[in-house]
Amino acid sequence: PFSSSARKKMNLKSERRGIHVDQSELLCKKGCGYYGNPAWQGFCSKCWREEYHKARQKQIQEDWELAERLQREEEEAYASSQSSQGAQSLTFSKFEEKKTNEKTRKVTTVKKFFTASSRAGAKKAEIQEAKAPSPSIHRQASIETDRVSKEFIEFIRAYQKPGQDIYKQCKLFLDTMSHKRDLSIEEQSECAQDFYQNVADRLQTRWKVPPEKVEKAMDEVEKYIMTRQYKYVFCPETTDDEKKDLAVQKRIRALHWVTPQMLCVPVSEEIPEVSDMVVKAITDIIEMDSKRVPRDKLACITKCSKHIFNAIKITKNEPASADDFLPTLIYIVLKGNPPRLQSNIQYITRFCNPSRLMTGEDGYYFTNLCCAVAFIEKLDAQSLNLSQEDFDRFMTGQTSPKKQESDSFSPDVCLGVKQMCKSLDLLSQLNERQERIVSEAKKLEKDLIDWTDGITKEVEDIVEKYPLEIKPKSQALAAIDSENVENDKLPPPLQPQVYAG
Predict the structure, then answer these.
(1) 292 lies in a domain?
(2) Which portions of the sequence form the region Disordered (predicted)?
């Protein structure tokens, strides 16, 4: 709005030139009571900004609708080309040419719009990322990705020129990786490891950055690029990571009966403080799957390990040793059964900054976790000091290890709990005896059947080797002395006589 002195000067100048100025012509077109400016199409400065903002928002909305429509057309064309790729090989090159032209036209339209306003310039990167060749990439980044990007930009500002170089290298790496989706996960891992090494060397040799700042910068670089690459490189479909996850989960579920005493775990969960430490350790190892950055996953493993050391220290009332730590970690993994355990281990191995993974406490605890998983996968009866028969019965669920003996309960435990434990122990013993009797009876039955079959086979073999021949019945033989003509001269047969004695 014009001030009163400005209006007086305008009227004086107009009267000197012989021009009559109507006060109503100087008022704002919107009727707000302020004086307008012809350069602003008759609006005052305030109303002109409002009108300009409305027109700008309308233009933004129209361009967004245009970009979305073009995106849908591109995805439909891509889908139709994939379905008819085998039968229409001749028309595929035409489709690619049309797709390239359409994409170029869209990018030109978006650039034309966004170069006019500095406010919309912040969204330009998101639009360009949305136009990546793969149709599965979403146009808008996730909330976490936006947050990490802002934090990364704020961080590198303190590095000035080295920070600009870091940001340029990261953007170049992400653009390069977007065109290498068809590579194997091992090749992508090598690219990431080479990138880490090159950026660290560049900061040390070219920009002379101190080692402690280099390490901090590399942590932020890893956080930035792996947050954006997470959905492409974590448990990819080209690997058998998911199959290994299911196998480990199934194995841990089958080992639910393993007790701390079998693993020689020096932790007493009866102590409330120790029980809380165990719960926190399990929570940390499970929380590892919710993180995206390898360094954050390592931090969860480190926190879990420190809770384990504290639990051992409280139980034994002395510092824990490495021999106590590994069995306890195995017990925590068995009790927690973390989701996608093998995928997380492989992801950390492939894409973590090697300087952090190979040195320090994070690397030590991660190595112990890998050893614990390997031990669980190869766990057998000898590892738990059990007989093979008991181990097989526990694994199949036929029986479970004995519960805590009633004599070992504390004095304040009620009698009902003790009696219940005695009854459970008695039932467990009776069940074992019954199973043993049934097993022996089945074995005896099998032995009888085998013995009968063996005797039958032996008889058949003998009959086959020595066949039985049945001769026809012969004529009756005459008495020995039937043809003796002097039978009548023979003395009579002797008769038995009884003598009185």
Answers:
(1) yes
(2) 75-94, 124-143, 482-501
Do 217 and 260 lie in one domain? The reply is: no
CA atoms of 280 and 475, how far apart (whole Å): 104
Looking at the fold, whether 70 and 157 belong to one and the same domain comes out as: no
- Which of 193, 170, 284, 290 is closest to 234 using CA atoms? 290
Mean pLDDT for all residues in the chain: 79
Helix (H, G, I), strand (E, B) or coil at 267: coil
**Binning pLDDT at 50, 70 and 90, where does residue 84 land?**
low
Query: Does one domain contain both 290 and 369?
Result: yes
Question: Range of 47's domain?
Answer: 39-74
Question: Could you tell me if 359 and 257 lie in one domain?
Answer: yes
Query: At residue 483, does pLDDT exceed 70?
Result: no
Per-residue pLDDT band for 220 (boundaries 50, 70, 90) equals: very high
* φ, ψ of residue 35 in degrees (nearest 5): -85, 140
* CA 335 – CA 395 distance, rounded (Å): 16
Residue 201 has pLDDT above 60, yes or no: yes
pTM of the model: 0.57
**236-245 pLDDT per residue, tens:** 999 999 999 9
pLDDT of residue 487: 63
3-state secondary structure of 27: strand
Using a 10 angstrom Cβ sphere, with 0-12 exposed, 13-18 middle and 19 or more buried, the burial of residue 248 is buried
Q: Which of 368, 366, 362 is nearest to 330 (CA)?
A: 368
Please tell me what DSSP assigns to residue 318. S
pLDDT tens digits, one per residue of 438-468: 999 999 999 999 999 999 999 988 888 888 7
- Residue 273 shares a structural domain with residue 219: no
Which two three-digit tokens encode residue 40? 């602003």
Token digits of residue 441: 């009876």
Residue 155 Cα distances to 141, 143, 160, 227, 393, angstroms: 20, 18, 10, 16, 58
Return the half-sphere exposure (C-beta side, CA atoms, 13 A cut-off) of residue 152. Answer: 23
Which residues are paired to 35 by β-bridges?
A: 27
Percent helix, percent strand, percent coil in the chain, to nearest 5 = 70, 0, 30
Residues 282, 280: Cα–Cα separation, whole Å: 5
Chain centroid, CA 293 distance in Å: 13
Looking at the domain assignment, is residue 156 inside a domain? yes
Residues 212 and 345 in one domain: no
User: Same domain, yes or no, for 254 and 383?
Assistant: yes
* CA 301 distance to own-chain centroid: 15
Do residues 215 and 298 share a domain?
Answer: no
Buried b (16+ CB within 10 A) or exposed e, 97-117: eebeeeeeebeeebeebbeee
